[in-house]
Amino acid sequence: MSARRNHAKQNLRPRLVEWRFILVITLVVGVFAALVARAAYIQVIEPDSLIQQGDNRTKRVRITHAHRGIITDRNGEELAVSIPVRAIYADPKVIHANGGFSDHRRWQALADVLGQELPQITSRLGNPKKRFVYIQRQVSMAMADYVDKLDLPGVYLRDESRRYYSAGETTAHVIGFTDVDDKGIEGIERLYDDWLTGTPGSRQIRRDAKGRQVEILEQIEGQAGKDLQLTIDQRIQALAYKELKLAVGTYKAASGSAVVVDVHSGDILAMVNSPSFNPNDRSNVSAHRIRNRAITDTFEPGSSAKPLAVLAALEFGTVDLNDTLDTSPGWMRIGGSMVRDGKNHGVLDLTGVIRKSSNMGTSKLALSVPKNHFIDNYYQFGLVGDTGTNLIGESGGIFHDRHRWSDFELATLSFGYGLSVTTLQLARMYSIIANDGDKLPLRMIKSQAPAQPESVVSPHYARAMVQMLETVVMDGGTAPKAQIHGYRVAGKTGTSRKAVAGGYGEEYVNIFAGLAPVSNPELVVVVLINEPGGDLYYSGDTAAPTFSRIMSGALQMLNIPPDDKAVSSLAAIVGGQHHDS
């Protein structure tokens, strides 16, 4: 009996390991194994992923804006500076998460201060999936403060800079301008964009859950843009622009250009065009106003190129300074075509050829020298090719060099037809004559080292040409209106018809290129009046008096002493002969 009870007790005792227990243990062990494996994977195999996720939540990079370099004139006057402004941008997702545009009054205030329509703003911010939309760039600090006080959720401000041009339209074509991102797109701003543009700084920080900065992880100092000093003298630039603008309006011209060059350094002291534009507000500026006509637009120089024929003949030796030419009867046929003067000037010396602007005289001189020697003069004097400024858009002129030249083509070339040049190229030609025949590249940047001059023509002949050009502005010359009280002036007019399809039209280009003071030339000024529309359409009546006013003001601004007391023997003789006749 007792044996059966013991056996029953043994049967009722629970088993040590039941299947449910095994299942639980297996699950627990499996979970812990998975956790350990995951931790090992994250910590050992791919630790960077977790670190990156943490950094995405806590790390931020703050960019420090680098201001663009300042552009100044030769005397340090600021012509282009960057002023602090702010950009207004929005996060549409945040806006829609905070009630969208329900606060109509504050959103309308934003639209009013920005001068925009509210529907225009709301339509740009209507997509809640977008995270960044500019509302308006480059707003003033006062306007930005007002927007900040509106406290619109999802609307933020960021620092920017905007270019400001203190001289406005006076220097617009030279300096150019930048776009909304402060990148140069015209003029000096574009040419020296890399130099003027700074390197932004950055600061990497760590912030806590509330967005507060708790640690600076890395800081890189930015570098401000480098400043740039031009050769331009803003005083002369402003004077030249005022006089040119007055002339274009007075003579009802289509446009005009003027250039002032320092003879001994090649520095461009002024380069102006009319019409111009305001670089601080280009909202309604047409494209034709933006181009720098002094370097882009070409024209046939006409009689202003005649000194080259005389110098070519002198340099080659086919004539001497005292030789004369018979221009009778005032016309001649060359290869079936006609070359003529306005009247029969009879026998002329070389000074008379320049003073009377004789086509007959320059044609005979051009045909007296070998073709290659004559044509090379146009290259040597800078009427073909660039001037050395490297300005964007500069034309090298239009000159169809060919292996064979007819005598008539050479003759017309001698009085400035058959090639086209820019105002700046013509200024370089006259700067060579004024600098005793030494050629220097023209330059716009003051910091550049001076170049070695290249001798183009004998100093003796260059000085003689200056004396000949002085007679042009005397009574009986073609430009007495170019005279300046107290100073001896030399120069040459050029009145050329504008080329059209199939020949020449009825529109004129008026040029006067001159230098002063004659006793020791310091400045060259070239004035171009394009398509004068009034009764006055000769250079002596339009470009010459404009030259006189620009040159007179520039000489006084630079404190260059008058030289009218010293009269050259050649000028005195020629002037006396004229008054006696």
Automatic annotation (TrEMBL):
EC number(s) stated in the UniProt entry for this protein: 3.4.16.4
Pfam families: PBP_dimer, Transpeptidase
Signal sequence range: none
Principal localisation: membrane
Subcellular location: Cell inner membrane; Membrane
Record's keyword annotation contains RNA-binding: no
Location of the Penicillin-binding protein transpeptidase domain: 256-551
Enzyme class: hydrolase
Xref: Gene3D superfamilies: 1.10.150.770, 3.30.450.330, DD-peptidase/beta-lactamase superfamily, Penicillin-binding protein 2a (Domain 2)
Protein name, per record: Peptidoglycan D,D-transpeptidase FtsI
Origin organism lineage: Bacteria, Pseudomonadati, Pseudomonadota, Gammaproteobacteria, Alteromonadales
